[in-house]
TrEMBL record:
InterPro entries: Spherulin4 (IPR021986). PANTHER family: 4-LIKE CELL SURFACE PROTEIN, PUTATIVE (AFU_ORTHOLOGUE AFUA_4G14080)-RELATED, PTHR35040. Residues 243-264 are annotated as: Disordered. This is Phage tail protein. Residues 244-255 have a biased composition (Basic and acidic residues).
Length: 284
């Protein structure tokens, strides 16, 4: 069992509350057609998926990405407005998020906003995933300025319902103040060998599970139940577990650069099994 530092009241999902998937970023639809098709399959408990083209929106609209964006948006509309079958097989309700690379606070604000506007204008995204988000207290004001502006852009568009969703891709527990800067924080991203012995910060017990996500690679099929128990115990409502190896960036919640294979770019080999274990559902 992993060593956990949270108090007993932090075991917020131990009662079997609904987990769902967050997809950090599949490969381009031409390279990963099955992956993108699975996201709109009825019954997939998808919270959100990230669209990443050349570490951002690209230089022009991509027709293949426009197609998958439209399909995912339509599936969400059917799920949220009652057009999907009202039984155990339901359409997904996941959002499409645009990938913004913060480079741990080194990307200029104007560049990030330009990328955000392109994502909204071309792909009508319902929010943003802020990859390589800094975690230090000193960087918090800059992140707050950015997330405030992004929320304003989403509110002005017709692509995001409920004001959209912002996810901070720290990959580790940040300074607690970041919890008030966005809708969700990725507080773990890394290998199973680290996750099974991971610790959860006590301050996370003050927030519900939908505020946290965990991404774990190298999870053996035989340890899926244990991995889901850890996620529930540590209060994560959104997960992505895969048996694929490789590294995601530099170990700080990165994005698979520097020649490293991104383990989250393809479906896990046990995708059907993990979908059935979590069960169908739609996002909030």
């Amino acid at each position: 069992m992993p060593y956990l530092t949270a108090p007993a009241d932090a075991r917020r999902t131990a009662g079997g509350e609904q987990l769902g998937f967050g997809v950090p970023g599949y490969a381009h639809p031409l390279l990963a057609p099955a992956e993108w098709a699975e996201l709109i399959r009825p019954g997939t408990p998808l919270h959100w998926a990230v669209l990443n083209i050349a570490e951002g929106p690209g230089t022009r609209p991509d027709p293949h990405c426009l197609e998958v964006a439209g399909r995912l948006r339509n599936a969400r509309e059917r799920a949220l407005h009652g057009e999907a079958p009202d039984d155990s097989v339901r359409a997904c309700g996941g959002r499409l998020l645009g990938h913004l690379d913060l480079a741990y606070g080194n990307r200029p604000f104007d560049e990030l906003i330009a990328d955000a506007r392109a994502f909204i204008g071309w792909y009508r995204v319902g929010g943003f995933y802020l990859a390589r988000c800094p975690a230090e207290r000193s960087e918090l004001p800059g992140v707050r300025r950015l997330t405030g502006t992004l929320h304003a852009l989403l509110a002005e568009s017709d692509s995001a319902d409920d004001g959209g969703r912002l996810v901070l891709g720290h990959g580790t527990h940040p300074y607690p103040g970041y919890a008030e800067a966005a809708d969700q924080l990725v507080t773990f991203q890394g290998p199973w060998t680290d996750y099974r012995w991971s610790q959860v910060a006590e301050w996370t017990a003050d927030y519900p599970p939908e505020r946290f996500a965990h991404f774990v690679h190298g999870v053996p099929r035989t340890h899926l139940d244990e991995a889901m128990r850890i996620a529930r115990w540590q209060g994560a409502g959104t997960i992505f577990f895969t048996d694929r190896g490789g590294r995601s960036g530099d170990g700080r919640g990165g994005d698979g650069r520097s020649g490293q294979t991104d383990p989250f770019a393809a479906l896990p080999r046990y995708w059907d099994e993990i979908v059935s274990r979590i069960g169908p559902g739609i996002s909030e």
